[in-house]
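Notes from the 1:1 (GR / supervisor)

We went over the backlog. Supervisor wanted to see one worked example end to end before approving the batch request, so GR pasted a single chain during the call. The sequence is below; no edits were made to it. Supervisor asked that the structure be written out right there so they could see what the output format looks like.
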Amino acid sequence: MIEKDIGPLMPAPAVHMDEYRSLISFFIFPAQAVYLGATLIQTAYLAEGDRTTHTSFPFAVIEEDAEIGDDCVIYPHVYVGRHVKTGKGCIFYPQVTIRENCVIGSNVVLQSGCVIGGDGFGYITDKKTGRHSSVLQAGNVILEDEVEIGNNTCIDRATAGSTIVGAGTKIDNLVHLGHNDVLGKNCLVVAHVGISGSVTVGDNVT
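Structure output shown during the call:
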């Protein structure tokens, strides 16, 4: 694991996507900007070769083989797991966790504390002993373009295959989506909703 310190420590501005794009020339470097204290695994990829630009603030961790798209902003204490792929123009606010192998589209916003790709709740119970044994959760989560996820929302990885949130869907704070759920495009999911595993929801559902 290699730490790269590039330039002076700069405060993380609280800006919206459009404001960020207009301001980026003031605080981003010609190539990938990883600020003092950020940790980047050496083999994390630049999505467009060595000309990719994205900003990683202090104490963000981008794991091995992750691919980060152009113009993404990764705030402090964000964790991006191995083999994660993101599109362009995403914003990941502090303490977001994106687990291994998840796929994030373009212009996705992840608010603080949300967990994308945590293990699904899957167990097998031994009928003789009553002991619960976990089932391997080997799938991933796919968030399509323009998805927004609220604070402390959890979207579980699929047991096999993918848990999917369709393009343009907006999810509020404190929501839980179980493993292998499929949400359609342009849905609105309000706070405290919980959807159990393997549920399919159509487009434009509120």
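Supervisor's comment: Residues 32 and 48 are 11 Å apart (CA to CA).
Batch request approved.
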